[in-house]
Design a protein that fits this description.
This protein has 291 residues and is of the alpha+beta class. Helix content is 42%, strand content 20%. The chain has 2 domains: 192 residues, no CATH class; 92 residues, no CATH class. Strand 7 and strand 8 form a beta hairpin.
């Protein structure tokens, strides 16, 4: 009986969410000049009008969000990872040009010097209507102690494809990709634990700052005021983290995500699509390349 009630509750929540999803249309734009032959150009809009979300050629087909939602729900059910489908969230960013479906995945305790160092992870399904954003599956993380947020830093997404007529069949099922992404998160948390055991020397720290910001202690006085301010905020964030978990690669990385989350990101979408996301990715790559 409890299982049936749970299914009914989940179905009700999904259908309520479906009513809130925008319907996207592709409409031909009249851009021709008299005496000139012009190719067909289309504008991407929410049904009923409003601002243009993107401009495309004929091959572009905007994602059907209702179908996307069904595929996500069915795939999660098939993956059998005991995820709470009723906690799925839909968000619009950049005026509706990019959208995400987010669902909690797992909570982990990082193998760091701090006991109870918890990180929460979520599956992140993304698509967009600016005609550049691909439909993709990734993950995001949230460290409870410092409220640091980040999304997947590697570019090898389990799922990523353009929104075109020929790719319509890729919305059928994401089960294998969901399982792979869950395993990727397992590996990422393990990697964070390994970073916590990797001490950082002053030389490595100076090199890291120089490659990330263009400044280190040696050339600090010659830098511009704005660059100095960024450097100071980053080094302060790293100091806060290292005071808690020691001067190691994990603390250095968390210092950058602290700065990105609390200083650089003006709104949540910046952690997914803005400069904060770019800096987090650069920091991960630099940490990964440390000798």
């Amino acid at each position: 009986m409890e299982i049936l009630e749970q299914i009914e509750t989940e179905n009700k929540i999904i259908e309520e969410l479906r009513t809130k999803l925008p319907v996207i249309e592709k409409r031909i734009l009249n851009v021709g000049l008299e005496g000139y032959n012009s190719p067909n150009v289309y504008g991407i809009y929410k049904k009923g009008g409003g601002n243009c979300l993107g401009v495309s050629k004929d091959s572009y087909t905007p994602a059907n969000l209702s179908l996307y939602l069904d595929t996500i729900v069915n795939s999660i059910t098939e993956a059998d990872l005991n995820l709470d489908i009723d906690k799925i969230e839909f968000r619009e960013y950049k005026g509706g040009k990019k959208v995400t479906f987010k669902i909690p995945l797992k909570n982990y305790e990082i193998d760091s010097p701090m006991k109870g160092d918890i990180i929460k992870s979520s599956l992140l399904f993304t698509t967009g209507f600016d005609t550049q954003t691909k439909s993709s599956l990734s993950y995001s993380t949230y460290r409870v102690w410092c409220s640091n947020g980040a999304k997947r830093w590697e570019n090898d997404y389990a799922l990523s494809f353009k929104n075109t007529k020929n790719n319509a069949d890729k919305y059928l099922l994401f089960t294998e990709q969901i399982i792979k992404t869950s395993q990727d998160v397992d590996n990422y948390v393990k990697y964070l634990g390994e970073l916590a055991k990797k001490p950082i020397t002053q030389s490595q720290l100076d090199d890291f700052y120089l490659r990330l910001t263009g400044i280190n202690k040696q050339n600090y006085e010659k830098a511009h005021g704005k660059s100095k301010s960024i450097y100071d905020k980053i080094s302060n964030a790293v100091q806060i983290e290292s005071n808690n978990t020691g001067m190691n690669a994990f603390s250095l990385l968390q210092g950058i995500t602290r700065y990105s989350t609390h200083e650089l990101a003006e709104v949540e979408e910046d952690l997914y699509f803005g400069n904060a996301a770019i800096m987090n990715q650069q920091a991960h790559q630099l940490i990964h390349s440390l000798n």
